Structures
1.
Amino acid sequence: MTTREAILSHIESHHHRPMKVRGLARFFDIAEEDYPEFRALVRKMIREGDIIVSEHGRLALPPPEAAKPARRATGRLAASVQGRFSLSERGFGFVMPEAPDGPTHGEDIFVGPNDTLGAVTNDTVLAEVSGKSPRGYYGRIVEIVERGQTRFVGTYIETPAGRFVRPDGGILSQDFAVPDASSAGARPKDKVVFEVLRYALRGEAGEAVITKVLGERGAPGVDTLCVIHQFDLPHEFSDEVLEEARRAADPYGSGLNKDRMDDAALDGRRDLTAETIITIDPEDARDFDDAVSLREHPDGTSTLGVHIADVAYFVPEGSALDEEARERGTSVYLPTMVVPMLPEVLSNGVCSLQEGRTRLTKSAFIRLGPDGEPLEVELANSFIRSVKRLTYEQASAALESRTDGLEPNIVDLLARMERLARILLERRRREGYLELNLPKVDLEFDGQGRVVAAHPEDTSFSHRIIEMFMVEANEGVARQLDRVGTTYMRRIHPEPDDEAAEDLMHYARSIGYHLQDPRDRRELQRLLGTVRGRPEEYGVHLAVLRSLKRAVYSVRKEGHYALASGAYCHFTSPIRRYPDLTVHRMFDAIVRGRVETHRGGRHKAAATPAGDGPLAELADHCSRTERRAEAAERELTKVKLLEFLQTRLGDTFSGIITGVQAFGVFVESPELLVDGLVHISSLRDDDYRFDRRRWALVGSRSARVLRVGSALEVRIAAVNIPRRQLDLEPVEPPPSAASSAARDRKAERKAARAARQAAQAAKWAKRGAAHGKAARKKRRR
């Protein structure tokens, strides 16, 4: 095995070309089975400061001692970073630095389960940076500067030992004593909001006070209230915000609804009311913020029109309404209700592109060549009148010649839109667009908000039509903002890091697929296409998704990896996303000519919502509110599904393994898309060991491999709703006659072998006894 000295000697030599860990392993001709050990050695050298990782992930010698940060005796970096902590269900977490120019240059810091110092999600902490591995920085928390969350949700319980509240979810793991619970009027099994007075430390019990009783556990709507309070979702608008929204809508609301418009509202806008413009949305949608049109030209080109509700017109920057929308960041789509970003008088009223109503819009006209290549983009403030509100089901039926009385011009428009969307899709595929086929499920609820049925989500091409058009509009607007040289809130998606790419490569190889460069979109496209329709499709698509980083909002000039886009922003949903609203205001500055030319021939908007610094902070805030909204939706969906599965204990299903850890495998129900844990102790058919490189548990005797994507027949063993846990156990297939006979023969062979061993042992014991007797006689002589 390559030694530390050999690695240092090579990096120090003038022959060394900066390379990443995998390249260094190839230089030393490290065998694949030895690579994990080699990588561990390199990581140790990084931790101890022998080598460093450059910004591009390549290995190099550390700078001269004078330029090095001070180190402790342990070899850890003494640099400290303050930031927000995020704790995972598995006990580890990440610190997100507050300052982008700190020791980690804004990159997150991984904190292991034993180094969290009792911090929980949203706490502001001081972390000591220990070092950097190819996967990123890591360290430990040395101080909890401020608790980010002191209010939680749980269940009130009474025991002989006292009164307690048991927290929901995975942030807090211990019960808290609530001595004064009677004053809050809580009864046993009530769901309550509680505030932590003292956390459990050094063996002392924590203490809390109940601040609100939400209702009896299991009562209709209480689970939704619990998640709203658990994630601290702002779900009520102040009187000031509601009044401001009414005032904003009133001068135009009556006119809009009666199809009469105030001249001031229409001044300077392009009149598109004579155009054939339609909306296509889910059947239960109430707010319609995007509409589309299409014109084809004799030269083979076409102009796609994407018309978005002009929310910025009704939400003045800096108003109480704007500040509330900014704080919320996004609408939250919970399974049985929506927590909106804007009051409904706007989102479902004057800002909604309802059929037959004249509405104010911002339009992006993208002229496309015959092969779908964008030729030019024109932006305009406009007003439209949607001629038809279609559901995805209606659009799909019309495309299958089931028109159900739709006007011929609408049917013709849909057919032309479908052709264009397929051309755009093919163009994006050529550019490297990644398509992940991961199923989604639609849940059906009864009047009490309980799940009664589930079915696969509609995946008809009518959904792809709108998806392709919205992506084209978002990208087109981003190109225009780049053209004038302004700083705006982008939607960026970084390429995978080395570690994640290597894990994906090992996983693909373990199931028989070879990836030369797992960060190359073409390679990923090839892999995804190869497995499409095969049993391993779900596992591979899931593994690719997990190898990708998360898309975020940022002012950094980066593109969108999965969309193969060099510049991308969110423009098409200002009713429900605040980033879109910031883009609309910059859009308006361009359209109204508020731009100025500066040195170098570039342009800059004369007025932007905020400078680079505040806009970067706002982008981080919007990324956090997006994550919070998604987490709340996942949490309530899981609660609803667990309530449903509680009535199906003992049921079996053939699941798909979605995660593998040393303690067991996570198996997902393909019907409900909820996963549970099969603990390794319940896998009794073999002794399993965890193979990290293969993402698998491997049987030591049978060599059976349980990996992501493998099918496993399981039984629902237990449901714990407060802890959000579903426990599963494997279902062993009934023994066949042949397997029973084989087991009998194996048992007979085992018994015969035991008999022979016993006879041999008796023989040696007898010989040993005789030898001992002779030795004693010899000693007496």
Note: The first strand starts at residue 52 and ends at 53.
2.
Amino acid sequence: MSPAGAPGRERERDPAASMALLRELVNDDAAQEYAEAHRRHAGSRPSAGSRALLLLSVALASGLLVTALVQNRAIAPEKELARQQLVERAQAAQAEVERLEAEVETTRQELAAAQEVLLSQSAEGNALADRIARLETQAGYTAVQGPGLVVTLDNAPGAVASDPEDPGRVLDQDVVAAVNGVWLAGAEAVAVNGVRLTSTTAIRAAGQAILVDFRPLVPPYRVEAIGDPAAMARAFAASASALELAQVSEQYGIRVTTEQAQALTLPASTALLPVRARVPRPAGDTVAGQGSASPQPGATTGGTP
């Protein structure tokens, strides 16, 4: 004990005690912040009902996608089958057309043979036979041979023939321009890719194809014209058709070539010739229209003079 009246010694403070208080205050604040963050995190989590709805939506979308894929795979064979059937029908129709054309050609030959026999029995018959031969040649009814000019049209390099919007494709109007040009240059007979042109031949587009006398053709398009090769070449080069084709070639890259040929063979046309005939009425027949045949309208000309 200290002597009475002596001032006592002061108690030393523990530094750890003061730091403990500070740590306690800091820990309380951190605990509160962690608790607040936990509450916020727990509040942001979807409820059980929301999670179930989300899973249901995902499952429904997946089911619809799988169903669409299955249906597409199921329909694809049907589309291919329908396409194949259309191709087979088109091929069968083309084969039937070729058979009928061969039959027509055989009948024409038989008719020509019978006609020659009948007309050769008199001078008048021989003169009529010569006239018929000239008319048949002009009408494209018989095959012809001789020198001439060939104008070839082809798509631009790299052009997509199946794309109707590709400007590098040869159009039906380009073929018409070439045909009109050779007619005006003095052609006596014209054919495009072996199809003989007549006064009723039409040249038009049908989808991605060019039809000549209702036959689809593919490039290159070879326009053959029988006549004087040199004279036709000069006249064609100076024609408006040649100028038009040159502009198209320069602008879109379509290839246009012209060459003289010393021997061309153009087949006879297989198209039906227009019939404009009237059978005279017997004398004394008063019935209106009896014994007469109404003239049939002719087809629109295409690419002919």
Note: The CA atoms of residues 17 and 133 lie 136 Å apart.
